[in-house]
Amino acid sequence: MAEPFLSIQHVRKSFGPTTVVQDFNLDVEPGEFVSFLGPSGCGKTTVLRMVAGFEEPSAGKIVVAGKDITRLKPNQRNVGMVFQAYALFPNLTVAQNIGFGLKVAGMPKPDADRRVAEMLDLIKLPQMGDRYPYQLSGGQQQRIALARAIAPKPKLLLLDEPLSALD
Ligand SMILES: Nc1ncnc2c1ncn2[C@@H]1O[C@H](COP(=O)(O)OP(=O)(O)O)[C@@H](O)[C@H]1O
Ligand SMILES: [Mg+2]
What pLDDT does residue 86 have? Predict the structure, then answer.
């Protein structure tokens, strides 16, 4: 069997005295598409946030491509995430939102601008780069969040109920 691309090993997450994820284990092969199903509050979002680096596991290990990433910052992981509630930056334009990860990664501005334009075309909002998130519908905001996550070409893409607002 091939080496797993993502390996979540004995991960636990507690908030104070409450354990919300217990001994979670999952191996994902390269190219594999995996869905989590479970009732509201069972810990799906918490697992995704730990893989992306927005929560630190209380125990256990997360390995991507053979490298232990458990304690790395989100921007050091090459992981893209679309959040359940989009989490667009309200003070940034659509184009700045989509280009955020490219800027953080230090991509030269002309290249970043080109990539942002490509993404705006892909999500069929080519004229909307200068708008702000509040000027968009829920479905449009969700497409911006998706574009922001995939603009840096992450090796791993995490989608937290990403299609709930799309028509
Ligand atoms: N920052 C937090 N502090 C305390 N409890 C939290 C926090 N984040 C999530 N929880 C709790 O962890 C549990 C799992 O939440 P979550 O991962 O969002 O579930 P799901 O995405 O499966 O609906 C819930 O009971 C939630 O209330
Ligand atoms: Mg959730």
Answer: 81
